[in-house]
Design goal:
Residues 686-956 form the DNA2/NAM7 helicase helicase domain. One of its GO terms (molecular function) is helicase activity. This protein has 1212 residues and is of the alpha/beta class. It folds into six domains: 76-214 and 249-258 and 271-279, no CATH class; 356-405 and 504-537 and 545-585, Elongation Factor Tu (Ef-tu), domain 3, CATH 2.40.30; 416-493; 590-752 and 895-982, Rossmann fold (3-Layer(aba) Sandwich); 761-775 and 810-891, no CATH class; 994-1206, Rossmann fold, CATH 3.40.50.300. Helix content is 36%, strand content 15%. Strands 3, 4, 5, 6, 7, 8, 9, 10 and 11 form a nine-stranded antiparallel sheet that branches. Strands 12-13-16-15-14-18 form a six-stranded antiparallel barrel. A six-stranded parallel sheet has the order 21-26-25-22-24-23, with helices on both faces. The protein starts with a helix and ends with a strand. Residues 1-78, 772-813 and 819-837 have low confidence and may be disordered.
């Protein structure tokens, strides 16, 4: 949309009177909200409901009746980036653009000789609902960088005293131009933009500084270059001039711009002045950010229920804002992060509702404790297609085609039946025996069904026994209790009813949860789910909603049945049974994130959290990465003297006399980059340490060493509780195993316990299971009526009962049927199975046994359970509360290392853990709000954030990007990346310990600006195993190739075709060649791991999910048909790219899948991840047809192909 002069003039009048006085805005966008509606997300369908009761978090209040937003001007699409000449005056500091004569006269990319400047004024920087700013971009064009911008400066209109744009005459233009180059001649009139600002927000990363400095150093070697080495000094001088030297001093900025030709005779200066006037007056007159906090005008909280939704409360068409590195103030930070993250979550949940899998082979098993079969077990066999299935503990919905709702047979009303029998017995208490028997039998047959044999079931003696017996009953209460027991023991004979309710013709979706169990008598990759019948639809009555009734093809399950025997029969009988799975989304993550930010912003709002002073200081610091007088400096070298002693020694000085040799040896093995980081731990702002690093740089090795040194550095082991967080379960599982192996290898006494903590609900169920009666062959039966009552008590708010109570019943049944839990199948490559050595339930049981004197009530109830084989409703309720208390006490006293995800760490019980150090790994792919969870809820000495910003970013799906979320671009920027872009990282781990042979140079140049390097030693870089892989590549390329010593090859299939599979792509030609080549490599005895005789392993990374599915299916078939051995099958793995971060293999085969278009294969972060997983050999399948545009040609995948062509390492 072209913004005309008249439109701007109109907007200007609306924002102020003709005499310049501010007036209330007249254009409002209003949205009416029902005052009884509460904006909570329903986990199942993502809709907004008004009947879910009060929210859990106390700071979520109901939305008021009206929400207003002020939109005073149209999008400014005509204003963008403009080349200009810059002059900065800041006290004694003065900086000017000094281009060549030609560039000074043209004002285009005016900076081959110095730093070029662009002024950006656009709708991304001038939003009607946010603080508005001008952006000055600093570019270096001559270095041929992919991104020529090397820094940026943001000047907020709120910080400007004034701003004007004026036309210069030709003479005035000539004088102004000569200030930048005395020989320049003005050929046209220029525009001068001038403003005075109290402060400038400057963003430049260490990487950008090094790129400019590196270019200068390279230029020094060029002959006849009279301006070599000038760019970096220019940049430093400009940065210094833009930084405030005194809070009372202002910065004068002048810009020269060439006036463009406009249609309709409009003047560019008038357009600029109108824009400046509108924006400046608006931001000076009122706080635009206040509009976002109409429901919390005093505190400026933004709970999830107050977040304006895209296309609902938020107006349509808001421009997507540019990502910010530093925020102007806390309001801007809260609005950008919370509104952006919440609407991203809303969009992804809505998109996931209709995403279903293909059909899978399935079996169904009844749950004994569920008498009406409203809960049951589903066993899914993926056959290599588990990519679309839920992870452990994740919820989903399962549909079994052909299973529909039927009229439910109401269970007998035990209460009414008992009441009628008691009445009859009491009414005929004094009748003779014959009359008593006849009368009571008649009443019995009214409530019991003759068709079930009730008419012949009861003898006269049975009925006479119902009389009151003084010696047995003592009083009427005992007599009534005996009669109730009689009716209950014969409940199977009671009459039942079939209600007249219509049923649907559609298949039923059963809510389900994937359980952490393996059934070894079925397929290796079989997955176990606990499923429930959904509740009946709501009606106008207040009756309790019951599960719907369905008929499932169960095989009868005897009480003594073992799982292996039973499942063999089930597989035979249910051979044609299929299931479809739809993964659920949960609002647990976004609720935890939003709560954390609000708690940091306003600690008084967090009733369930205690926010420490250092946490608040850290929160203030990360908004702009600037220290103030309240920002404490944390010195870990002082807190842990061994780190200081190590950093100041060569491992031999007397200060280390008490430090074990194992720790000293580990320190000496660290590379220079890691040692430099340790040396910088003496001045952490608010205790924050940001540590980026290249792929394979050993970030996790640094974490392990720091923890080990703090524990053992002073001789005797000192407990040092530590919390390790990662954004996904797979990374957490891997690290828990690595921690255990690391401390086992050290062999020092007093090693910490490693706890792998899953969702707390799951862990509590496990403890109840482990504390239950010991090993027995018979199943411990639970009364379903009692269990149902317990579930209603525990989950009164829940729409579906698939969580803790029923899961406990299912876990107990499978265990008693001989199913081994937490035991990895030897033939399975799954890394999601839990280790009993590091599980939280094991730690809780051990804590209970050690402190049993503090848990006498729990001990008493467990004794009753062992004696009676079941527990009452009251006892079940009490057990749950006692176990929760046990967990709280155990976590409070735990002195080891907890490995978990940020969402689990946000749990109010888990927050009892007193961590002294907190590490967030893979922080570059963790959402910013997810990173703040640990800052809010833990008070350690320091928080560490480690990751690789060149690899995957926080996930933002296409469905989220397609919405009008104005802050969606910010959501792909992590806290770690912002810190790196602001240049406040603690250090940079630039030495890779992964890439051998010829793999490092190309990855370093393309992905890391040349900063990545390996250890450099030929022996390290070319061990005998890597030489063998180089020979294999040479053999693969054939005799026509003159390339030697290459461990990377690019393969092309000119006649292959990628085919659409749903929304993804697959390529069968690639799959056939890759699997054939993989089998050949697995059979080569010379291809081994580095410095080992153990055979090498292979990782296949297709860039499309459908291709992953195809690889796994074909690989599964190869194994089934005995064309690949079990041993070779275990040495080859297929992963999605998203699940490969942190992974490495000897051989990595990256399949780009596409043949005639690039798609998202051009994404630079995904390319970095894909091409840095290999240790010794890398095979890339990149077809030339993908490179079909200049944009793709200049992308990273285009550069990879160009280098491969240059080195002649392409196989067609």
């Amino acid at each position: 949309m072209k913004l005309t002069h008249s439109l701007l003039r109109e907007s200007s009048i609306q924002n102020g009177d003709s005499d310049g006085n501010s007036a209330p805005p007249v254009n409002y966008w209003e949205h009416q909200v029902d005052e009884q509606v509460e904006c909570n997300i329903d986990n199942q369908n993502g809709e907004v409901h008004g009947d879910q009761g009060p929210p859990v978090d106390s700071w979520e209040h109901q939305i008021d009746e009206k929400v207003e937003y002020n939109i005073d001007w149209a999008p400014l699409d005509t204003l963008g980036s403009m080349d200009c000449l810059l002059t900065v005056t800041n006290g004694n500091l003065n900086w000017k653009s000094m281009p060549s004569v030609q560039n000074a006269e043209n004002l285009r990319e005016c900076g081959n000789e110095t730093i070029s400047v662009k002024l950006k004024v656009s709708d991304e920087t001038i939003s009607p609902l946010m603080h508005k700013y001008l952006k000055i971009e600093l570019h270096l064009y001559e270095a041929n960088l992919l991104d020529t911008q090397v820094a940026e400066a943001l000047i907020y209109f709120r910080d400007m005293d004034s701003i004007t744009a004026g036309d210069l005459s030709l003479d005035e233009s000539a004088k102004a131009l000569k200030k930048h180059n005395t020989k320049a001649v003005a050929t046209r009139s220029l525009i001068k933009v001038s403003f005075v600002a109290s402060q400038v927000t400057l963003n430049i990363s260490t990487q950008q500084r090094l790129l400019v400095q590196g270019f200068d150093n390279a230029e020094k070697h060029r002959e006849a270059n009279d301006r070599h080495g000038s760019r970096y000094p220019d940049l430093v001088a400009l940065i210094n001039s833009l930084q405030s030297q005194d809070t009372r001093q202002t910065i004068q900025i002048d810009l020269l711009i060439a006036e463009p030709l406009l249609r309709d005779g409009e003047k560019w200066t008038e357009i600029l002045n109108d824009v400046f006037e509108v924006v400046h007056s608006a931001d000076q007159a009122e706080d635009q950010m206040a509009q976002w906090f109409s429901k919390s005008a005093e505190s400026h909280d933004m709970p999830l229920g107050h977040v304006p939704r895209v296309n609902d409360i938020l107006p349509r068409g808001l421009t997507k804002q540019d990502p910010l590195v530093r925020f102007h103030n806390e309001d801007q930070y809260i609005v950008t992060q919370i509104v952006g993250a919440a609407n991203k979550a809303f969009a992804e949940e809505a998109a996931a509702r209709d995403l279903v899998s293909a059909e899978f082979a399935a079996n169904v098993v009844p749950l004994r404790s569920s008498n009406d079969n409203s809960q049951f077990i589903v066993v899914i066999t993926p056959k290599g297609r588990d990519i679309y299935l839920p992870a452990l503990g994740e919820s989903c919905h399962i549909k079994i085609p052909g299973i529909k709702q039927k009229n439910r047979v109401l269970p007998p009303d035990l209460g009414e039946a008992t009441k009628s029998i008691i009445g009859s017995v009491e009414a005929h208490a004094y009748d003779p025996d014959a009359f008593f028997v006849t009368s009571v039998r008649k009443q019995l047959l009214k409530v019991m069904d003759p068709d079930k044999g009730a008419d012949t079931r009861f003898t006269d003696a049975d009925i006479l026994d119902l009389r009151f017996h003084q010696d047995e009953d003592n009083d009427s209460e005992n007599h009534e209790a005996r009669l109730r027991k009689f009716v209950k023991s014969h409940a199977q004979f009671l009459r039942v009813e079939t209600p007249e309710k219509p049923t649907g013709d559609e298949d039923v979706w059963f809510p389900a949860t994937r359980m952490d169990s393996k059934i070894e008598c079925v397929a290796d990759d079989a997955q176990v789910y606990l499923a429930s019948c959904p509740l009946e639809a709501k009606d106008d009555t207040d009756n309790v909603r019951r599960p719907i009734s369905v008929e499932l093809p169960f095989l009868e399950l005897e009480r003594s049945t073992r799982m292996d025997d039973y499942m063999k029969l089930v597989v035979e009988e249910q051979v044609d049974l299929k299931a479809v799975i739809r993964r659920d989304t949960s609002d647990k993550t976004i609720r935890a994130e939003v709560f954390a930010v609000n708690a940091l912003h306003n600690p008084a709002s967090a009733n369930t959290a205690v926010i420490g002073d250092q946490s608040i200081e850290a929160f203030r610091y990360v908004q702009s990465f600037k220290r103030n007088e309240k920002t404490r400096s944390v010195n870990l070298l002082e807190r842990f003297p061994v780190l200081l002693a190590l950093s100041q020694s060569d491992g031999s000085q007397s200060a280390l006399s008490e430090c074990p040799q194992q720790i000293i040896s580990q320190y000496l093995k660290l590379d220079a980059a890691k040692k430099s980081v340790i040396n910088q731990l003496n001045d952490l702002p608010a205790g924050l340490a940001f540590i980026p690093g290249v792929a394979g740089s050993g970030k996790t090795e640094l974490v392990k060493f720091i923890i080990a040194a703090c524990i053992f550095g002073q001789g005797a082991a000192r407990p040092m509780p530590a919390l390790y967080l990662a954004p996904n379960n797979q990374a957490v599982d891997d690290m828990a195993t690595k921690f255990q192996a690391y401390f086992d290898k050290l062999g020092l006494e007093g090693a910490p316990t490693i706890m792998r903590l899953y969702g707390l609900d799951f862990e509590v169920k496990s403890v109840v299971r482990d504390l239950a009666p010991g090993s027995g062959t018979s199943y411990q039966h639970f009364d379903e009526e009692k269990a149902q009552g317990k579930i209603e008590e525990m989950d009164a708010e829940a729409e579906q009962a698939t969580d803790r109570a029923y899961q406990f019943l299912a876990v107990y049944q499978l265990e008693k049927m001989g199913c081994n839990f937490n035991q990895q199948n030897k033939n399975s490559r799954s890394k999601r199975m839990r280790s009993n050595n590091v599980s939280a339930d094991t730690a809780a049981v051990a804590y209970y046994q050690t402190h049993i004197e503090n848990y006498r009530n729990l001990q008493s109830i467990l004794t009753i359970s062992e004696r009676d084989g079941s527990l009452s409703d009251d006892h079940l309720s009490e057990v749950r509360m006692l176990v929760k208390g046990l967990f709280q006490d155990m976590l409070f006293d735990f002195k080891g290392i907890i490995c978990t995800t940020p969402v689990v760490a946000a749990n109010v019980t888990v927050r009892r853990f007193q961590a002294e150090l907190v590490f967030t790994d893979e922080a570059a792919r963790q959402s910013e709000l997810g990173s703040l969870i640990s800052v809010a809820h833990y008070q350690p000495y320091a928080w560490f954030f480690l990751g690789d910003t060149a690899q995957l970013k926080p996930y933002v799906g296409q469905d989220s990007k397609a919405t009008d979320n104005p802050f969606i671009r910010q959501m792909s920027v992590s806290l770690l990346e912002r810190a790196v872009l602001a240049g406040v990282e603690l250090g940079y781990l630039n030495i890779t310990h992964r890439l051998r042979g010829s793999l490092c140079p190309l990855s370093s140049k393309i992905h890391y600006g040349g900063r990545m390097r390996n250890r450099g030693s030929p022996d390290w870089n070319w061990p005998s195993s890597t030489v063998a892989f180089s020979n294999e590549v040479t053999k693969l390329l054939g005799p026509s190739s003159d390339t030697s010593n290459s461990t990377r090859v690019v393969v092309q299939f000119p006649f292959a075709r990628a085919t659409l599979a749903g929304t993804s792509y697959r390529n069968i030609t690639h799959v056939r060649w890759v699997l054939d080549q993989a089998k050949k490599m697995l059979q080569n005895p010379e291809l081994t791991e580095i410095d080992s005789k153990k055979m090498a392993s292979i990782l296949i990374l297709p860039l499309y999910k459908a291709q992953v599915d195809l690889y796994r299916e074909k690989l599964h078939n190869e194994r089934t048909q005995k064309r690949i051995s079990d041993e070779h099958f275990r040495r080859i793995e297929v992963r999605t790219l998203d699940s490969a971060q942190g992974e490495e293999r000897d051989v990595v085969i990256v399949d780009y899948v596409q043949t005639h278009k690039a798609g998202f294969c051009v994404d630079p972060n995904r390319n970095c991840l894909a091409t840095t997983r290999a240790k010794q050999c890398e095979i890339l399948i990149i077809n030339a047809g993908m490179i079909n545009s200049p944009q793709v040609e200049n992308s990273k995948v285009g550069q990879i192909l160009a280098k491969a062509t240059e080195r002649d390492i392409i196989l067609k």
